[in-house]
Amino acid sequence: MRSAFIGLFCSVVAANVCAQPSGERVRLAGHIHPKARPEFDQGRLEPSWPLTHLTLELAPSAAQKADLERLLVRQQTPGSPEYHHWLTPEQYAQRFGASDAEIAQLSAWLQSQGLKVTSVARGRNWIAFDGSAAEVESAFQTELNRYRVAGELHFANATAPSIPAGFSGRVGAIRGLHDFRAKPRARGRIIPDYTSGRTGVHYVVPDDVATIYDIGPLYSAGVNGAGQSIAVAGQSQIVLSNIQLFRSAYGLPPSTPQTVLVPGSANPGVISGDADESHLDVEWAGAVARNASIIFVYSTDVMQSIQYAIDQALAPVLTSSYGECEPETFTADAEAMRNWAQQANAEGITWFAASGDNGAEDCNNSQHPGLAVDLPASIPEVTGVGGTEFSEGSGNYWNANNTATGASALSYIPEVAWNDPTGCSGGAAASGGGKSILWTKPSWQTGTGVPADGARDVPDVAINASCAHDAYLFYTGGALQGSGGTSFGAPIFAGIAALLNQYLTSSGAQASGGLGNINPRLYWLAQASSGAFHDITSGNNILAAAACPPFNRGTCTPSSSGGYTAGVGYDQVTGLGSVDVAELVNAWTGASNGPPTSEVSVNLVSSESSAALSDTVFLIATVTGANGSTPAGAVEFAAGSTVLGSAPLVGSAGVATATLAVSGSQLAPGGTISASYSGSSASVGVSVSASGGGSGGKPSISGVANAASFRQAFAPGELISIFGTQLAGTTELDSALPLPETMSGVAATINGEAAPLLYVSPGQVNLQIPYEVPVGSNATVTLNNNGQVASQSISIAAAAPGIFFANGAVDAVDANGAVVSSAKSGQVISIFITGAGAVSPAIATGAAPSSQTAVANLPNPAQTTTVSIGNVNAPIQFAGIAPGLVGVLQINIQVPTGVALGAQPVVVTIGGVSSAPATLTITN
């Protein structure tokens, strides 16, 4: 069992990874912007260039992340004690943020580098700071350069930043090292021509939207947004007179939005293009929620505005009409955005984002041609809004004359997928949509039409977005303009959410506050055939081949990969479709509050059917999703009416398991245990007696050791071997991932956390120490053999590296994947260890990275790692957990020159802790 982990894709890894930094610092992966390319480099950024409101993004620990995901499920599960109980930013900080001591330590380090700390998040998950380019370069040991991309001059870091090794487990990203900004999604501008006589051309005003999408009945009932607020994010100052002109022109009650400049951010002033976007966003959010308070949050970076709105919990609804395609957003930034979105949901905030206007090819340039979707709309905790356009056919849907408020729509108008071959400015434009390359499919994204692709699909919903047929009107620059794009859909849906919040609050269906992530409920309503959605079944989002938008980013290469077609049910063009708002609001509380049980099945088993009061009982729930989606979140366990606790789901390919370890004393004699998830439940009976209950022999543990070195040294995530007698009734080797938590009736815990098993036999059990076991603890290893229990204590350290070896020689592989015990000077080989401790990004206990994971995104040691051969430091080309490996670190090293021939000791040191030496023979 010592060398069964090697020979996996070594040549691939060796060819693609970068050397690790030396010393007491670690480089942060995923921090080179895709547009910061050498051919665009214009030289070094001026040393005195001021950089303001950069942020250290503080990632939650693995335990905090699991706890947050459990909370998000409970907050959306009717009947849960935490259902719709939203957190304040301070409550979020206490549970999921960094500690005060960590904040103080990180702040002190920033200041020691000459940087000025300007603010700390209320959620204690970011620290803002200022500094000159030279100070930032020195602090993070990087280089900031100028880049000219598509005619625009930008700056960005040319090399990966580094931080002190002691911070690597907490710092997830550094934002502000570049100024590539998300782009507004408004498509083109036209001057409305009411006298042209063009047949079939209409312009959309607020009362038209109210008629077409059935908002009128809510207004008649007094549901108009009163008492509600909407935060609109932007990156330009706005001119309030434009909003006043809009509201006056279309009969809306007078209202002036509150403007909030993010503290510490420079005032961007009125920026052409961005100001247009912000004007229409503010105007149209208020056009739907007519009596709501609109809070416009702005800075030099719209993502900074979003982050601040969430941290301050400014409003229960947030809208943003900006985005970048996923391939052009570096991974650390994307992960930070998702952390914000999850915080927003925990605080009850519903976030809407435009899905983009470049059809299925969101990047729409030569650097990243082909299929791609828009961020942040693709984040599972964000509601992505796509586009439709009206298709009147021979029907009569418009009045020949306008009302006093400029409206002429008579009723709902049939819709097709938005796809303007020429757009408003002579270029192709269509509803953004497709599958994410960053996020897996959430458990709630199910139903007719949802692809079984294992990926988060966008958009979720859609609404009219055509800039040609028919454009929305808005005021900007003191004049009336017409435009289209998914930019309008996001604020319109934000207004709808504000109306829904008011309705639910006034009717007593919910306490004051918001709804958090509404996506699970939307998909359930669509499956319930509630009439809340207009299913769009015609059209596509394939960009026209004839032309590219003149306002496109970079060199356009349309129709390189096609796109998607609208169809029955969900589709990757219009999502679930557009909405009948009155029906949506009525349906929200018109039936049971859970998703249909047919979409998720729960199977509960226990490691034993009878137990003693002193036994440890493992409750294992297997949850199967629909359409290939893998369930996520947590399963709740109960014994009768007594809640036993919850456990996170871990799985892939549509199936996930959750395991909870409880004592026999927690189970009522002869009681029934139940497991519940997302409206589905299952139960099993377990009898409990004062005497023993299991059928296995009484196990006896003689020792516990590191599975590679056989030393008594232990760290989170490590593989260990337990030796003894009657540890299992048979021999079994696991053959699938993630690792199971029970085999042949054998299960184990460490400090109450279920420990995944690799191998069981009467004399030896191999398992993984859960990453959740705290460092510095004296942990209890408990082994349960079919109801009979033995235990032993071990001490947990931050790192306890052990090298896998056979007959004293290090187990290594060469670039061809062949097992070797010798190597030449300069040769690259891979060795394998366990006991590295925490890794970044975090990975679930028992799980291995997907084979689709980019090398740069593979989990790597959170602490400084070095390797020596014959007391000479060996250059490290890669150190991380490779696909297919659990708890095992692969390290690619180059044999250093100057090492003497013959048998030489190999030592791995992690966080200052050295392994026992293994031998490598150096040959000519």
Description:
The chain is α+β, with helices and mostly antiparallel strands. It has 4 domains: 183-191 and 201-584, Peptidase S8/S53 domain (Rossmann fold, 3-Layer(aba) Sandwich), CATH 3.40.50; 599-686, Immunoglobulin-like, CATH 2.60.40; 700-795, Immunoglobulins (Immunoglobulin-like, Sandwich); 801-923, Immunoglobulins (Immunoglobulin-like). Helix content is 16%, strand content 32%. It contains 14 helices and 65 strands. The strands form 18 sheets. Strands 13, 14, 15, 16, 18, 20, 21 and 26 form an 8-stranded mixed β-sheet that branches. The radius of gyration is 29 Å and the shape is globular. It starts with 9 loop residues before the first helix and ends with a strand. Mean pLDDT is 85; it is low at 1-23, 194-198, 545-560 and 591-599.
